[in-house]
Amino acid sequence: MSTSTSQPDDFYVGYLPTPSRDRRFLWVFLPLCAFLAFALAVMTNAFARPTGDGVWETGAEVTLEGELVATPFPMLRVARADGTVERVLLVEMGKHGADARVAPLVPTDGTRVAASARGFLIARGGQRMLELADANPITLGGTLPTRAEPRNIGEVVVAGEIVDSKCWLGVMKPGDGKAHRDCATLCIRGGIPPSIICQAPDGTERRALLVARDGAPLSFDALAPWIAAPVVVRGTAEMLDGMAMVRASEIGAADELARAEGAPQ
Amino acid sequence: MSVSYRAVQWNPAKKAYDRRLAFVIAGYLAVFFIAAATAFETSPLILAMRACGTAAIALLIFILSIGPLARFSPRFSALLYNRRHLGVTMFLLAFAHAALATVWYHGFGVLEPLTSILTSILTSGSPFEGAAQIPFQPLGLAALVILFAMAATSHDFWLRNLSPRVWKLLHLGVYVAFALLVAHVAFGALQDAVWPGFAWMLAAATAWIVALHIAAGVKEWRADRVRRALAADGWVCVGEVERIVEETAEGRAKAVIIDDCRKVALYRENGAFSAISGVCAHQGGPLGEGKIIDGCVTCPWHGYQYIASKGQSPPPFFEKIPTYELRIEGRTLYVHPQAKPPGTPVPPCKIAGLEGASS
Q1: Cβ–Cβ < 8 Å for A222, A211
Q2: pLDDT tens for each residue of A130-156
Q3: Domain-located, residue B5
Q4: B326 lies in which domain range?
């Protein structure tokens, strides 16, 4: 095609010099568009929802010692300096629970097992989880903390969201919400302990381990439809060394409960 | 215009265009991550996912705005010229967003990522009611498939081999993709948002695109609805010669519609008029809004050129468009409604008193 540069000043053709009128216009219009785009970038972050204070200390391997527990989920009962006991959930790397590794180490006859677990801490709001290191992370032996019985709290109705404990405690930020649903589902399918999270009346966030009415893990198929959605869990609650656990007798959609409560009796 | 295909057809204008595009996208990502450093801590991959996703949808809104804006002002033609590079860039950003979501949300588990996605699509949301529970990933995936088909066929090779009509139809899929992406954001990210401003921003952007297209459509429709009188032998009356000459500058065209839908461009050149199709053979650009440069009608969209009296591009190029016969009876200019086959030479219709006028 022609390579003439006889470009009229009012008609743009890409392969000819840009008319000065178009150039002046673009010098105003394009920076304005860029400014709007940059404003979007700022607002997307400035108005993002809070993600909590969870941390995932991937670079700092630690070793914890205590009593190895296999049910309902793998955990380590660790004695604190003040004499109390803390339950630290144990999980594998990725979206995998530690049941296959821990269950064979703990006798089913109630014999208590002392062990050391090596891995990376995940923590949020004073609750901790240990992501086990990949090579021989558990060593049997050590000191057992004092025994403690679960403290029964009674019947509860908890309105909140079912999450996988690992992401919510700090691996993913945010580790809840609809966008995170598939990840939470994959985590729980892989054996990561499910939790119900909710807001306490004082506005603080609360988490409770979620199990079936008999204290065993809930079946994945029963739980899957309710993950990362507004739900209501009915059941009984208990405290295991300071860690809340809800034995669910019923899980339902939160809006159904709201409708039921609003309906004439 | 091209006589051979190249992977990417760059010229100085396109290179400058792409440099600015790269600068704005790099700037957007930089601003995004700097802003994130001062906000609530978010996982780096989720941040990258959000940055690519928001950049993609912002770019799509920009792309969809250019066409109708160019209907209102020729100043936007410079943005229209290289819109395909914008489109491919937008697809790459959307793909990066999808890839990051796949790796981060569907990876590292007991299912393969693609199995996890399929499982999610086939099983999610069933016990719930209401829009908030509608699964949003399939909407994004469907949009990505459309955007991929568009990006993959964006080259002139496909334009020529699919035919401009099929190509255009395929690329109108961008509107379906846009609707799917609006739904993807509305039923996805917005469900987790705590600031209502995000919903308003999406609604405003959607309203902007819809309103802009309606306004441009109305403008076109008003121009197209002019009913033209017919002579006894079927020729279509364009109007009084004096008035047409007055309205049409040398080297410019009068755009008319005949048979309610066919666009014809009547170009004034050297004291005569030539009638050609008003639709560019390349991408359907409005030849009636073009200009004669160096003796050739030049399309305002991508600069494709045609010799008005021949209906074909100057050698070595081979694009052809239909031509029309013109005649003057008394003081009235008529155009024959039957288009000549593309590339058929038609002698220009001389206008008395205009002969010898310089171009």
Answers
A1: no
A2: 999 999 999 999 999 999 999 999 999
A3: no
A4: 236-350
